[in-house]
UniProtKB/TrEMBL annotation:
Protein name, entry field: Proton channel OTOP1
Subcellular location: Cell membrane
Segments crossing the lipid bilayer: 74-95, 101-120, 141-165, 177-194, 277-298, 319-343, 355-381, 402-422, 548-570, 582-603
GO molecular function: proton channel activity
GO cellular-component term (any): plasma membrane
Region of interest called Disordered, as start-end residue ranges on this chain: 1-33
Keyword Transport among UniProt keywords: yes
Source organism: Neomonachus schauinslandi
Family statement drawn from the similarity comment of this UniProt entry: Belongs to the otopetrin family.
Amino acid sequence: MPEGQGAPASPPAARSAPGRASAGPAACPSPRLPAAGSAACAACVASPESPAPRRGAVRASVPQKLAEVLSSQYGLVVFVAGLLLLLAWAVHASAVGKSDLLCFLTALMLLQLLWMLWYVGRSAAQRRLIRPKDTHAGARWLRGSITLFAAITIILGCLKIGYFVGFSECLSATEGVFPVTHAVHTLLQVYFLWGHAKDVIQSFKTLERFGVIHSVFTNLLLWTNGVLNESKHQLNEHKERLITLGFGNITIVLDDHTPPCNCSPPTFCSAISQGIYYLYPFNIEYQILASTMLYVLWKNIGRKVDSQQHQNIQFRFPGVMAGSVLGLTVLAATIGIVVVYLIQIGRSKTKSELALIMFYVYAIALLMLMGAAGLFGIWIYRIDEKSLDESRNPARKLDADLLVGTASGSWLISWGSILAILCAEARPPYTWFNLPYSILVIAEKYIQNLFIIESIHREPEKLSEDIRTLRVVTVCNGDAIPLASSCLKSGAVATDVASLGSEIPHVANGNMHLREGCGREAEEGSREGTPSPACRPRFLQGHAKRRVLRNIAAFLFLCNISLWIPPAFGCRPEYDNGLEEIVFGFEPWIIVVNLAMPFSIFYRMHAAASLFEVYCKI
């Protein structure tokens, strides 16, 4: 019968199903299938007379879109104003001091505190209402990580208060108010994220958009402030060490913001000053993690959440001994390399060159291992016929965008090093190790991004991987529903099939049958260029394949934490190499490194967080 024509429904049927169209295909009987069969036949019961979206609904969405645009522009205005204040303080602009910058940041934090208190109070008053949640946002391990970083941030605030007390004679009151406000802001923000990171806000949406976006850019400005303070400290140490490598033609002018008065006792103040800069990396990670979680909350405002529940992600340790042992070995070796590097660099020209060579050789070997592990994981995915989850997910999209965006920072530095080596007139021997190191940094991050992004987009495992293709083909005329499975060779596979059959007993009544199609599937797989399950190695089938992928994820997770440590704690050969500063000039290269290094550091921590999620999902 041609599409769109069918027998009219009888009056009793019409009364019993008022939501059904008055006419439909006669070949589609009432479905007796499970969810898979019903979804396959959904097109048959769709009516061409289905109503179009109401004009009122379209008009109602217009103010919300305008609110989203206005709130984002408000956040950008606040962020640009804060960046200009930070820049003015960094270059010692006249009439702009540190107290002005701290007053602006304190006002932003107080405004965010008022909004969070209002939101928490309103949520407590309406706690009996059922609210939609985004189960992908604010994972428990992510909230645990931000709690750890927040605790160290509060310790950093205590050290800043001690620093203010020591130099209270010549410091403004804002330098004492700021760390106190920041500590209170950190405590309440962590509480807010633990309780409301998964919220999908459906009321007061316009007001909430401005409140959340204000929180996002407040945290970004606090992150920028921490990055700037830490970069100034690293740059001063670099200028002091640079002369030992023989680059005496570079003028060393320390950019010091030390108060003009004495601290009592001097030993106490010196210890506090050094401790502050060792805690800055944790504060920097806390602020950027908080801003990303708040951004996901902002994207979820007014969103319609899918009714399908997200599968719980659980941490499973058994079966990853190889990846964990190798990764922990890398972590211990990295800590040793960093300690030796920081001790040797700047002592003399010979010791500095040996420290650079040691770092480059170790990093080259580690990057080659990481690249090989990533390529092996991608190869496993290539031979696996598993569908990808393409559903709308703001948290997952943000993860992928951050991986690619922050990787560009280290790519910029690496390409600058490659050009410097190729264009330099004189090349000291230790600089040649920088060439393979820079190339491997680019390649390894490219490979790792591919592995992580494909891993977070893959459907979670449900049945044994020995049942590779389980296809339910619905024929609307009700003749037959063939069920094709792959090779059934073990008792475990038969059990899986039996359990599947027990879930759909009304389908397996003659309209569904199993057939062993090893030969045909192998032939089809070879024709498509993808090996069939029967043709794969044993270690790439079922639980063995998942064990291999978990070991790869665990190894890469620990390696990324290992590579986060050197630049975060002062081991930066991009500064100490010296060749790039000769080719590009001291100030241009320092600007490039100071702009790109924060993104490179954040990439390693974000990649580690994403790999932990991949590990729990496999």
